[in-house]
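Dear all,

This email documents one entry for the complex benchmark we are building for the journal club exercise. For each entry we list the sequence lines for every component of the assembly. Then comes the predicted three-dimensional structure of the complex as a token string, followed by one or two observations. Please use this as the template for your own entries, and keep the labels exactly as they appear.
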Amino acid sequence: MNMELSRRQFLAATGAGVAGTALGAFGFGEIEAAHAEAIRAFKLVNTTETRNTCPYCSVACGIIMYSKGDLKKGEKAEIVHIEGDTDHPTNRGTLCPKGAALLDFVKAETRLKYPMVRKPGSDKFERISWNDALDRIARLMKDDRDGNFVQKNNDGVTVNRWTTTGFLAASATTNETAFATYKVVRSAGMLVFDNQARV
Amino acid sequence: MTNSWTDIRNTDLVVIMGGNAAEAHPCGFKWVTEAKANRGAKLIVVDPRFTRSASVADFYAPIRQGSDIAFLLGVMNYCIKNDKVQWDYVKAFTNAAFIVKDGFEYKDGLFTGYDETKRDYDKSTWNYVIGDDGYAVVDDTLTNPRCVWNLLKAHISIYTPEMVERICGTPKEKFLKVAEMISECSTPTKTMTSMYALGWTQHSKGSQNIRSMAMLQLVLGNIGVRGGGMNALRGHSNIQGLTDVGLMSNLLPGYMTLPNEKEVDFDSYMSTRGFKPLRPNQTSYWQNYKKFFVSFLKTMWGAAATPENHFAYDWLPKLDVPGYDVLRAFELMNQGKMTGYICQGFNPLLAAPNRTKLTASLSKLKFLVTMDPLDTETSRFWENHGEFNDVDPSQIQTEVYQLPSTCFAEDEGSLTNSGRWLQWHWPGGTAPGEAKTDNWIMAQIYTRLRDLYRKEGGAFPDPIVNLDWSYADPGEPTAEELAKELNGKALTPLMDPTDPTKVVVEAGKLVPSFAALRDDGSTTSGCWIYSGCFNENGNNMARRDTSDPDETGAYSKWAFSWPVNRRILYNRASADLNGKAWDPSRKLIEWDGQKWSGYDVPDIAPTAKPQDVGPFIMNAEGVSRLFVVGMMRDGPFPSHYEPFESPVTNLIAPKIRGNPVARVFKGDFAQFAEPASQEFPYAATSYRLTEHFHYWTKHVWVNAVLQPEFFVEISEELAKEKGIVKGGWVRVWSKRGSIKAKAVVTKRIKPLICDGKPVHVVGIPLHWGFTGAAKKGFGPNSLTPFVGDANIETPEYKAFLVNIEPIAGPVA
């Protein structure tokens, strides 16, 4: 059973109807036609559907995101609607008060857009380029690691640890990001390493 | 979860205790509704508050926060006293018959071997008697007074219904009703599921809260069966995955452990990880540890990990303490012993305890880096927000980088849900501004650091410059590349162990599952338990086949469930000693005389004879543990301990304060209120609201409108006593901080009577801060104590002491 296909077909058919080709066939008179024209077209027509899962709790409800533009075609894509995925075995299309408002998370005014730096003692953030920020972060990390890395403990045992810079991992990044993060953190010898499982 | 969300439909009784699924996991809770409507299942809720879960329960019982162990051991005691035990299961599938060493004892709240100065136990007596044959000695008749069953019976006998009422404040008749309903699930054809969350974990004895229920489930024979199990409702979308992949101080991926500095080389490390079976014929699957460990090291360091250098064992950092968890990190910061801190999608200024200490700690750093899609409080800890963040920026010398990351809608990869399903998701939108994926950010930091070491040299560059980073674009590994790395591949042709002329996996091919992994360096696998997620069949996490034969709720072709697509852990225990389902209507897997098969991937070797091989294959015993050997710091059995800040003294062990082995840093003890404190007389707890998710949705307009403003919740009785009016302003303070809030005066909270004395509960929801779309407010962490669970350091957020008074509100 390929529900995705059947769903797309359903939407395509609905879209065609609203776009107007079938209006005459339904017998609309002039008034009805004028009225129909005044109604906003079904907003999901010509949008791209993408499957995703809700980023909040661990039920991991299936969602469908509708965007103007298609990332797969290299286009800029703006998400215009998010709803529950009726095919998903766990949530079967339903969403809670948080999941139902996901679009406002994607478009939150307080989404971060640019790297920022706050200099010591300053009372404000300032824009900084990615390159400058990353170069500086790598430099800060290396200087600290070079200064405080412990190769052997007092008993002469090889311990290769770095405990003066720490890393707190997230709770909603992907497993793949988690593994990339793991590799970077552990290869540097970091031990001060935790995630949000405890809180 | 041992089971899955969709499996809850198969249950007869749901116990929600230590959680509030109807509000915190609403779409998962629908499977409770489904079980109620279609099976006639019942729902019990035990909670200090009459939650929305309670509002649809068949029975609700109040409990004082922090007293769950007394309640659960009370239920177990009731079941045993009333012969409500699934005896065949207990005898065959638990360690009830194992004989415990002489010398092991429990007295006055402590087990044998306690050292008060170390706040730790010498656990040498907490073990089995080992016979001359090298196996643990058992008494199948359960008559030996030193067998686990008899020690357990004696240990829990103190938890009578009367004692439960005195400790927990649960009226005796309500407790008895709950105990009776639960005890009915001791028959092989009736099962119960436990749904819990941070209401159980966020205590100084959180691990033992969960163990208590797990033990009860074993006594009732409810582990491994459809509709049963221990079901942790993880709070965040991928906290299961982050933990599976080992992003914790002391972990390697797949629940292997990082070496400590006493494990000076590869052989000494492996010597304590032999996992020799403790009974004849048992699987003890961790005997394969070396295969998983070597495959992990090969994934990390590729060609540089050789048999000669023990696969780069020395390149792993070695621990000198049990772990550098988030509490220890802030303690070290506060002592001025840390230089930098990097927070990826984590907002510790609101999420870790004792905010005053957190701010002081962050202020001592040289640098702080945050990566987040949202403008977090942590990234602005240095900014003055009046009473909501009362700091002087000019006095804070920390250099702060706030890096914008993509959110779920713009990122690709898998998340692991509570039921261990790895589900793939795809990006659908363009990220705002210059926001970048976490993969890009991590790769950019790594390649810069590596290049600096290549150019300049420095402290032991080997593990950094030799890290296998062979991605098509080293500046941004793709989710697919990383998923394949987690799965693992063959580096050389893998030959069939039974026929050395036959190749089972060609060199360069992805391994089908962890069963193909080798300990000689010929395979890789980043996280062995995830092996099978992306193999030569393709990306199994992206599967979307909704078929579910006979509607068991397994959905075996939807996504991928670790391990090896198994949907219910310990599923061999769903069948009796002969391999027949305990409950024919809830068949899961069965033995046909030759092999195991059924609706799920068997959690046992397919040809393992049911009479010989026990269902708990990860345990050296082959059975489950009612008595745990050496693995829990605070005792082989759970025992009631009060929270560190408690409105009463410990009734069964008056001299014991908190959990006797929980780690408390110097300076923090002085910041705990005394037991039964006059100064801080009220028992506070923290919780979520259904309209909000942690500290994220206050940035979301709709949710900020739904619940715009911070409040605290108190009973009508306490309001009257203190002269607090509905909607009026209050100040709430603990020994560590003070907050202001509006008061919600409610019937949902009632005073409890504990040992004859009323205890008032103050509820503090956790969703407000000083950034976002909602009104500025406080979080419970301004008040909570800096102490964690004795085993895993989850902070004690659910039980602490406060005082409260009415105040004049702010001028509008």
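Observations: Chain B has a mean pLDDT of 97. Residues 18 and 200 of chain B are 5 Å apart (CA to CA).
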